[in-house]
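Listing S7. Sequence submitted for prediction.
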Amino acid sequence: MQYILCLIVFLAGVGKSFGQSEVYNAVNQILELTENAAQTENPSFSYNVVLERSDGINFPISNIDELFKDEAIAKYFTEDDKQAFKNQIKEYKIFNYQTDSIRGKTILTATDLRDLKSDHKRFWDKYKRKFGNTGFYDISFPLFSKDRTKLLISIGRNSFKGVSDGGVYIYNKTNEGWRPYKALFIWMG
């Protein structure tokens, strides 16, 4: 009887969690697609650094209830997806991006970011001394739909050349991997 109860509890939890390999697979594919687009726009510039997300999910997609007020999101994702997003956000509170798992990128840790921001007027000078002439991505953890066929992610690009942009995007899982479906919110700075 105990065995059956444990099996039921285990099966009830399947699909509610995420695996690190699933997260890194999605993030690496999305970064590769984003990098290819960035190289098309400006082949002389790169983004070789990724901001660590140890502070949790980033602002544009952290408040799921507020996000679902947007018609495009409510139309594309279900209430079950909404609950799956909330569950994933809780799990992400103990998850960090690791350099060895993000292909070809260095991680800008929260500690390094705080140190760089301590003198905000010299942020980019200090940044370039530490990381070189490269920008950085601020990419949220992906939020997977309950059926794992769609995800919601926020991607920002920041550079010392005075260019910052980003958005919140929906990606669909295809036979070729994760592919962009729709940009929901875009910003430039």
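Caption to Listing S7: primary sequence and predicted structure tokens for the chain studied. The radius of gyration is 18 Å. Helices lie at 2-13, 20-41, 64-67, 71-76, 79-92, 110-117, 123-131.
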